[in-house]
Design a protein that fits this description.
Layout: H1 3-8, H2 10-51, H3 56-95, H4 100-128, H5 141-163, H6 170-187
Helix pairs in contact: 2-3, 2-5, 3-4, 3-6, 4-5
């Protein structure tokens, strides 16, 4: 019965993230902003796991944690699209052709794959927790908590890993754009 309220708890954190992204991108770069917030999210979820879900204090901690988890979600939603723009510039710099369509289509495909994985984890959690799908009685709530929260911990930390290999800095992106413009100017002479 509280699903809607629980789901909405990430919204304040996501709103804060939308205000933080410009500052974070300038201070830490897009790459490091992404890594920092996902490591932060992993730590928050790990703390949430160890605090647990039983008792008023644990539920308050979980609610605060969900608000904080809106920050990585919000940063992710904003920065990934900016980074796709960087990769479009890289593609044009490397090949001479812009590929906005394929780059943004791949982002949509990856989002859908992520949603499918999340749904799979949710369904598997029902099985792991021995939930009766007719009465919704949870046979093993500790296993449900473990499956849902620890999968989030793994996901947060796993999201940060590929970003260590992302090499397009703001300076490099500006250099690529300048070189692209110089090539276009030469071609138009």
């Amino acid at each position: 019965s509280l699903h809607g309220i629980i789901t909405l708890l990430v919204v304040p954190g996501a709103l804060v993230a939308s205000l933080l992204v410009p500052w974070m991108s300038k201070k830490f770069t897009k790459k490091w902003s992404y890594i920092i917030v996902h490591l932060f999210g992993g730590v928050v979820m790990l703390a949430m796991y160890f605090v647990g879900y039983q008792g008023t204090g644990a539920l308050i901690f979980a609610a605060i944690s969900l608000i904080l988890l809106g920050i990585p979600q919000g940063v992710n939603n904003i920065i990934t699209y900016a980074m796709i723009g960087d990769t479009v510039d890289y593609l044009e710099w490397k090949t001479g052709e812009r590929g906005e369509g394929i780059c943004y289509a791949m982002q949509t495909l990856i989002n859908k794959i992520g949603m499918a994985v999340g749904a799979f984890i949710g369904v598997m959690s029902l099985r792991i927790a021995d939930i009766d799908t007719k009465t919704y009685v949870v046979g093993e709530p500790d296993k449900l908590w473990m499956a849902l929260v620890l999968s989030g911990v793994v996901s947060m930390f796993a999201c940060a890993i590929p970003m260590f290999f992302y090499t397009i800095t703001e300076k490099r992106q500006a250099e690529m754009v300048a070189e692209i413009e110089a090539r276009k100017a030469l071609a138009n002479k």
